[in-house]
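$ fold --in a.seq
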Amino acid sequence: MLVGATVLLTGCTLKEQARKFLQGDERLKPVVQVGETEYTQADLDRFFDSRLSDFRDPAHADRVKSRLLETFVEERLLLHEAERRHIEPNPEALRSTIEKIEASDVERATSGAARARDAQLERSVADSLKMQQYLHDYVLKNVSVSPGECEEYYGRHMGEYIRNDVAHVREILVDDQSLAERILASLAANQNKNFAELARIYSKAPTAPHGGDMGSFQRGELPEEFEHAIYPLAPATVSKIVPTKYGYHIFLVEEKIPAHQRRLYEVQDEIHEKLTLQRQRGLIDKEIETLLSRIQVEIHWDRLDFKYTGTRFGGFHP
């Protein structure tokens, strides 16, 4: 399902150049046609490389590439429609996006092929911005979610908005059990009021400079042995010594908020975003189906370097 046209792009890498040299003109033959525009296996390779990143699991290659082929065609349908409507990218957005990509691309800064990649990068970014602009101006312009719809959703899904127990915790971590016992005795004598001071002096944990302050955690976010020691405690009380492979831990619960139902005002923005995204996805899917019905799509299955396993384009598959 296509949610938006995202720019995830690379230029012509050394790996791609070697692949072209070894496989010759086969990579330059059209494998996909959307409208009047033809795309080669080299175009698909660039797209796959940008989306796959370091994922190269041969056992799932056909399935992953099949889904990416579907995404490739969906985005080219949107690009076709954007260009039919003469949509051009905002020059400032184009410049800013390219600068961000270049700034994060260490290889670009040191590679002799950087200049050759610039034209491909700019074209890819421009295409992505055209698709985004088309979606914004024509497909998603009337998407809205009312407060009443958020309230209705909340009422039907209250179980999704229950907050677990929350504890604000401090810790002391030492290597020696006898030292941990002396610290525990000092805490008892001072009614735990010197916990932060003892943490600064004796704790080897990274939280020591902050008086052992670990922050707040919901139940389920800490290791099980820590939770068994922490959550039964009342506020302002200290745990028993908890031995682990890292040493001997002592915990102080500063504050505790029991599990509770989150109110509508707490989650309204979260619900609004969720419902908006759902509607956007539905509209984009509907638009792609409309474009598929009136824009010619042709896929040369015999020229793909993988086996298509999807169902999205089953009607085009021989």
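$ fold --in b.seq
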Amino acid sequence: MAAIHLPASQHRAQPWKNGLGLSRTIADFPAGASFDAVKWQVSATEIGADCPFSDLPGLDRQFMVIDGNGVELSCIDDSGKTRLFQGKTMQGPCTFSGEWKTQCRLLSGPVKVFNVMTRRGRFAAELSFAEGAAVDADSRQTLVAVDPRSLDAWRLDGPGRLVLPASATIVVRIREA
């Protein structure tokens, strides 16, 4: 199966559910689905000020800073416990539930972030970094590879090999749970 190139210039603009910002959808399933219907979504967004995150019931979230000085996420989980995550540039993702009341505080200026959301119990995603290599997918996977600087991306649905650019790339492996 051949990979599909997803140039950054064609990523769909999508307002945040809470109306406080705008994300660029890189890839999603089903295509163009609302937050209430999406099964999985890979996106990027710029955050210019401290803000609350949207309430996204049923979605598991992975959030990673790709440019800027980082953020602190303060999440109140299902039991009422506060969980703090600090995200620095190109560190592994912060993972949290879409239902958790989450507040984002910028550490020092605006950031650009990478987001992966999966419908809990239906899909799961794994993020990794690769550079100038090939990654293989089996018949039950979708691979989405994203250049974090340009946001150009490549998608491979099902079995095949995806050859990555020489620069560092974020690889998202999505499969049914």
